[in-house]
Design brief:
The protein has 24 helices and 18 strands. It is an alpha/beta fold and about 650 residues long. The strands form three sheets. The protein has a seven-stranded mixed β-sheet with strand order 3-2-1-4-7-6-5, sandwiched between helices. It has a seven-stranded parallel β-sheet with strand order 14-13-12-15-16-17-18, with helices on both faces.
């Protein structure tokens, strides 16, 4: 562990809460201490209320906040006395505990307080830190883990056997603290299965103790086991994997009852662990801490037998459901972590964020498992204890339902020509609706077009079939499959009447606007067939299909042929559950081909102002890239679930078309 405390930086953080934020972020930035959403910190302070009276408050990390990025508003201010007094009760249901804790908050807009608030309140120290340090878990999660911890920390530590989180844990800790002859001599509390608490009268003292005690655990592993875990260089299979991955993702989605994102990790560590001869034994003993079960499930899937995993989970549920009082609905039985010797580690989730969190957690879990194995044997909590946490009311409350606007959550879209104009707008509309989006374009700006983990930009020439195949391979490895294909990339050559139309211009236009789209549709078809909700293709056509103009023969012919290709695809692919529809935009002026100079010249040639020219249609409205993109997105959604082979204008009404 590296102690990152900086006295100069800390001095700029004035006040107890500012100090709490500063040291919390130091803890949060170290992933071997705190994974996404994990860990807890608090500070006790005094503030004046609206009556001018001083109150003792406990600022404790609020639910949903990540320590690495937490702000002052991420802490919930609770009245300290009633919060601590809850520990004196003989029994308190956890749901009632949370209701009472919310009632003790002095600001109604504060986030829900931590389930560990009572424990933070009863500790007689100003600053309290709690982490799930990898090294500590590795030492503790061994058959004789409690004795190892006692040997390691001696009288500095209060060791509490595993107890279900919530009120029961707070009550048990309160009783052990009351029996402790000198609480002030303690430097930490080790909660078996939960992690490490350190504390101090200053933020620096609590933080530095955490670093020192975790370092001691690391040094213990180095002395007694194997600290450096080396994985041999791993080479993934050279063959394309996209069809295999998409098929696996479809099975996972079917088990989950909804489309799932599935990310492939084929680095040395992921492949090396998945290829261990003992992986089926060590990986299936359970998670490093029950706090992870909501993200990774209790066990990973070894190999690709999703149906077998599903049956095993159903049996696990039936075996343990009686542990929970009252009616209980089984969570989806789909794996969240898959370990396969060919593919490496795959992580699944309803969103890219969920799949990435599962990967982050399990990557750290691998270290914990192997360090514990080197100490004599990795040991997780019994299945019944893990089940109680997995189906705990307060844990289930974290499983938020997707927003109604996220109609494409768990689905994957690929958009060509996505660096600008209609293509960029399509990518944006799909992202807004929850999809993971891959954008293709010749323009290098495509790579950073959207600052979202759900987006990936790929520089590619759509006329290069090998580049298209590679783009599809990257898409599936990044997100698991392909559900939506938006064919937007195209060129509009300068005006040439047929008598002067040269062959290179004609051929290039057809190559970009027609041939490239045929190639991408052909290569994407096997993936679209495997889309959990059926594949969807939207082709950006043109008003020139029903109403061509002079000087645009190459463009009009290529778009007309593309439209005809779409009609045939709709006929051929309907049996595969793939819908194919065409949008015909016109006069969309916020695209790259319309500079201010060109727009002004065209308006002048019609005797119109620029604004009049933009609205030169039946409805007298301006058509934007966003308008086209919104229709493209809706065509892929549930409102058009029974529509295929359609051609829809987005032009404000064109007299020649009408």
């Amino acid at each position: 562990m590296q102690n990152l405390w900086n006295d100069i930086e800390a001095a700029a953080c004035v006040g107890d809460l500012a100090q709490r934020v500063y040291s919390s972020r130091l803890l949060g930035c170290e992933r071997s201490l705190v994974l996404h959403g994990g860990g807890n910190t608090s500070v006790k302070t005094r503030e004046r209320n609206v009556f001018g009276e001083e109150e003792d408050l406990l600022y404790v990390k609020g639910s949903g906040w990540d320590l690495a990025t937490i702000e002052a508003r991420g802490f919930t201010p609770l009245r300290l006395a009633p919060t601590a007094r809850l520990a004196t009760l003989a029994y308190l249901p956890d749901t009632e505990m949370m209701r009472l804790l919310r009632s003790y908050a002095v600001t109604p807009e504060a986030p829900a307080p931590s389930v560990e608030s009572i424990l933070h309140a009863i500790l007689p120290f100003k600053f309290v830190d709690h982490t799930h340090a990898d090294a500590l878990l590795a030492v503790a999660n061994t058959p004789d883990g409690a004795q190892r911890i006692a040997d390691l920390y001696g009288e500095q530590a209060l060791i509490v056997p595993y107890i279900m989180p919530g009120f029961a844990l707070a009550k048990a800790c309160a009783e052990r603290l009351a029996a402790c002859p000198d609480v002030k001599r303690l430097s930490c509390i080790v909660l078996m299965g939960h992690g490490l608490f350190t504390f101090g009268e200053t933020a620096k003292e609590a933080y530095s103790r955490m670093i020192e005690l975790v370092t001691r655990a690391e040094e213990y592993i180095r002395r007694m086991g194997t600290w450096h875990i080396a994985f041999p260089p791993a080479t993934p299979p050279a063959r394309p994997l996209r069809a295999e991955l998409a098929a696996l993702r479809k099975e996972v989605s079917a088990a989950a009852g909804a489309p799932m994102i599935m990310i492939t990790h084929s680095d040395d560590k992921s492949l090396g662990f998945a290829r261990r001869s003992d992986v089926a034994s060590i990986a299936r003993r359970g998670p490093a801490t029950p706090d992870h079960i909501i993200r990774t499930k209790r066990l990973p899937l070894i190999g690709r037998d999703v149906a077998g995993y599903r049956s095993e989970y159903e049996a696990y549920f039936e075996q343990h459901r009686a542990l929970i009082n009252g009616p209980l609905t089984m969570l989806d039985p789909a794996p969240r972590v898959i370990l396969d010797p060919e593919l490496g580690m795959l992580t699944a989730g309803r969103s890219v964020k969920d799949a990435r969190i599962a990967a982050e957690i399990y990557t750290q879990t691998i270290d914990v498992i192997l360090h514990a194995e080197s100490l004599g044997g990795w040991q997780a909590l019994p299945a019944e204890d893990l089940f109680r946490v997995e189906y705990w009311d307060l844990e289930l409350a974290k499983l938020k339902k997707p927003a109604a606007s996220e109609v494409f959550l768990g689905e994957v879209a690929l958009v060509t020509g996505a660096a600008s104009g209609i293509g960029r707008a399509c990518a944006q509309s799909l992202l807004k609706r929850g999809a993971a989006v891959v954008g293709l374009d010749l323009n290098p700006a495509i790579v950073g077009a959207f600052p979202s983990p759900a987006y990936r930009g790929i520089v590619a020439d759509v006329t290069d079939e090998s580049a298209l195949r590679e783009a599809l391979e990257q898409t599936v490895r990044a997100f698991g499959g392909l559900d939506v294909l938006v064919l937007n990339a195209g060129i509009f050559p300068s005006s040439q009447r047929i008598a002067a139309l040269d062959t290179p211009t004609w051929q290039r236009t057809l190559r970009v606007n027609l041939d490239a789209n045929l190639a991408l549709m052909r290569e994407a078809h096997p993936l679209l067939k495997l889309a959990p909700r059926g594949g969807r293709v939207v082709i950006i056509g043109s008003k020139n299909v029903p109403a061509p103009g002079p000087g645009a023969a190459a463009y009009s012919a290529s778009k007309a042929a593309l439209t005809q290709l779409a009609r045939v695809a709709a006929l051929e692919w309907g049996a595969d559950g793939i819908r194919v529809n065409v949008i015909h935009p016109n006069a969309v002026f916020d695209t790259g081909i319309w500079s201010e100079e060109v727009l002004a010249a065209r308006a002048e040639s019609y005797g119109l102002t620029v604004e009049q020219y933009k609205r030169n249609n039946v409805l007298q409205v301006e058509v934007t890239s966003h308008d086209v993109a919104e229709l493209a997105a809706e065509l892929c959604g549930p409102l058009f679930a029974k529509t295929t082979g359609a051609q829809i204008p987005v032009d404000g009404g064109n007299e020649r078309v009408i």
